[in-house]
Design brief:
Its main location: secreted. It is built from nine helices and six strands. By secondary structure, the protein is α/β, with parallel strands linked by helices. The chain starts with 8 loop residues before the first strand and ends in a 21-residue tail after the last helix. The structure holds NADP nicotinamide-adenine-dinucleotide phosphate (NAP). The site of NADP nicotinamide-adenine-dinucleotide phosphate has 30 residues, from helix 1, helix 4 and helix 7.
Length: about 250
């Protein structure tokens, strides 16, 4: 089945790295005009350049998703340079590990600000355009950790559980406007964030792989393939869903 997304404008937050980077690349390969939002503007532009070098279309923008004014300014730039956004993928995220009794208010607020409030603010910034167009696709990247919890990741897991709730609410509010809102909670995916988490000893990779039915760690492209389908025309009857991409864990 074709998942072609030709000519639509897509914003991918956190698109300079890891899962967001693979999603940006896949949507551009499917024909979308891709805007990469990342807090590191140079990294966002470098990621866009590598997409353009493949013959596809992308621009990078320095947007910190904890800064609502920067989100609105970024979306305005996208409208001007690439067209009205019809697709939004929220992949920007941070993880902080540590025992719950040692989590400071600052850490808690920072993780929630990026992972949950940033996701909400980006949705709120693009939804009016989608409503006006009568068509839209939003995919929020949550985390398989929200299925079971993970010791030492209170802020992260709470933020991702919040993203699942937010996804369901937006799906209900905007379903009749032609807009679908879904979430992918990835399992263990080989990215800079995962390598950093492993280096802190939060997970034992061999143990995790042994508990994964398909017997391997996931790749960013595994998430990108599912996301590309969810933002396609053909996925219009899927909304408010939690689509696990985790090698068979947490089913
Ligand atoms: P990643 O490689 O670190 O990519 C995340 C990107 O988001 C980075 O470019 C990061 O920039 C950017 N970012 C962080 N804070 C931001 C902010 N305030 N504004 C804009 N951009 C910001 O991590 P990843 O593994 O691809 O993670 C992508 C998403 O998947 C995250 O939401 C994560 O929670 C989720 N996830 C990942 C896994 C996994 O196994 N990898 C599993 C479950 C869920 P910096 O590099 O400057 O921080």
């Amino acid at each position: 089945m074709s998942t072609e997304t030709t000519q639509r404008t897509a914003i991918v937050t956190g698109g300079a790295s890891g899962i967001g980077g693979a999603i940006a690349k896949q949507l551009a390969a499917d024909g979308a005009l891709v805007a990469i939002f990342d807090r590191d503007g140079e990294a966002a532009q470098a990621a866009a350049k590598s997409i353009v070098a493949n013959g596809d279309r992308a621009l990078g923008f320095e947007v910190d998703v904890t800064d609502r004014a920067a989100i609105d300014a970024g979306v305005a730039e996208v409208r001007e340079q690439l067209g009205t956004p019809a697709i939004l993928v929220n992949s920007a995220g941070v993880t902080v590990a540590g025992p719950s009794l040692e989590v400071t208010a600052e850490t808690w607020n920072r993780v929630l600000a990026v992972n949950l409030t940033g996701t909400f603010d980006c949705c709120q910034a693009v939804l009016p355009d989608m409503v006006a167009a009568g068509w839209g696709r939003i995919v929020n990247i949550s985390s398989s950790s929200m299925h079971s919890g993970v010791p030492g990741m209170a802020a992260y897991v709470s933020s991702k559980a919040g993203v699942v709730g937010l996804t369901k609410v937006l799906a209900l509010e905007f379903g009749r406007k032609g807009i679908t809102v879904n979430t992918i909670p990835p399992g263990f995916i080989e990215t800079p964030m995962m390598r950093d988490t492993l280096s802190k000893g939060v997970f034992d990779m061999d143990l995790q792989v042994s508990r994964t039915p398909v017997g391997r760690i996931g790749q960013p492209e595994d998430i990108a393939a599912t996301c590309a389908f969810l933002v396609s025309e053909q996925a219009g009857y899927i909304t408010g869903q939690v689509i696990g991409v985790n090698g068979g864990r947490n089913t």
